[in-house]
Design a protein that fits this description.
With about 300 residues, the chain is an alpha+beta fold. It has 2 domains: about 10-65 and about 200-305, 3-Layer(aba) Sandwich (Beta-lactamase), CATH 3.40.710.10; about 70-195, Beta-lactamase (3-Layer(aba) Sandwich), CATH 3.40.710.10. The protein contains 14 helices and 7 strands. It has helices at about 1-20, 35, 70-80, 85-90, 105-110, 120-130, 135-150, 155-165, 165-180, 185-195, 205-215, 230-240, 250-255, 290-305, and strands at about 45-50, 55-60, 65, 200, 260, 265-270, 275-280. Strand 5 (about 260) and strand 6 form a beta hairpin. The longest helix has 19 residues, at about 1-20. The protein is globular and about 55 Å long.
Length: about 300
């Protein structure tokens, strides 16, 4: 039965991959030189199942930077270390309706009522974590390793490229700190945040991250309980309303699943209690989400009857 199921899932992924492989819409992120160099034709899909297996097709072994999908894992670490009330009161959990790096939302809300999945809120979340810069990084790296089921390597080349071009994030961080959103040095918070985004993953790693959330915080590959179920609900709620930034409502309308995109070309989607889905394709839309990845995962979710509202 297991082999039959495996063949069925892989056939489903292959069909979605082939259906959308020819899509040439969008382009890799061009505002970070290291990301602009990524081959736009790379394409991979994966599903993590409750038995700990990952079924993947396409360029599944190709490493790429996790980028904003890391915000999900750092939010999980912050919920564990700081609690729900701290995140709600100091960062916020509401959608902004603006682009992921918008400064206007920070100014309008005076550093509050954002969410941990936009850049301003993600930097504030890092800034709230306790300890020295080294201790905070160890906390973040350990959380990513627990979710992915293995330690993740940081691309120093991507990290350096992003640090050279992240003036907007620096401005956001200083503005957030001026409003008392966090107490850590703003430049230090930006550096830690940028480093988490430069971690390298494969689409299989992303599927395990999504699968861990699907299994109420238990990594199905390692069996470790890496996040309390009570915190999983909070993470999924924020993903549902803000995971694809200004396009989150349309995504939820079409697909009906909590999800998170990254400008490295990755996307995760969570089918609670059932599956973790992931895609990788560097061609991005105007909101910074993978065009092929969104379309392929929508097909997979529909074929599996995975819409939460049905």
């Amino acid at each position: 039965m297991g082999n039959i199921r495996s063949r069925g899932l892989e056939a489903l992924l292959t069909a979605a991959l082939e259906e959308h492989r020819g899509c040439a819409e969008g382009q890799p992120a061009d505002y970070v030189p290291a990301l602009a160099e990524v081959d736009p034709e790379l394409f991979a899909l994966a599903i993590a199942t409750p038995d700990g297996l990952v079924h993947a097709v396409g360029d599944a072994g190709h490493p790429f930077s996790i980028q904003s999908i890391s915000k999900v894992v750092t939010l999980a670490a912050a919920l564990s270390g700081l609690g729900r009330d701290c995140i709600i009161e100091r960062v916020g959990v509401n959608p902004t309706g603006r682009r992921f790096n918008a400064i206007e939302a920070v100014e309008e809300n005076r550093g509050r009522d954002l969410n941990p999945l936009v850049n301003a809120g993600a930097i504030a979340t890092v800034g709230l974590l306790q300890g020295t810069a080294g201790q905070v990084w160890d906390t973040i790296a350990a959380a990513h390793a627990a979710f992915a089921g293995r330690p993740l390597e940081v691309s120093e080349r991507i990290f350096a490229s992003e640090m050279e071009t992240n003036g907007r994030n620096r401005a956001v961080a200083h503005l957030m700190r001026s409003y008392g959103a966090f107490d850590r040095d703003a430049e230090e918070a930006v550096a830690i945040y940028t480093r988490q985004c430069a971690q390298l993953v494969t689409v299989e790693d992303l599927a395990r991250i999504a699968g861990t959330l699907a299994m109420r915080g238990r990594n199905p590959a390692t069996g470790a309980q890496v996040l309390a179920p009570a915190h999983v609900t909070g993470v999924l709620a924020v993903m549902a309303v803000s995971g694809l930034y200004e396009d989150s409502g349309e995504w939820l309308f079409r697909m009906g699943l909590p999800a998170k995109s990254g400008v490295g070309g990755g996307i995760i989607a969570v089918v609670p209690g059932r599956l973790g889905l992931a895609a990788f394709s560097p061609r991005l839309d105007s909101a910074g989400a993978s065009v092929r990845g969104m379309r392929a995962l929508t097909d997979v979710a529909q074929a599996l009857g995975a819409n939460l509202f049905l």
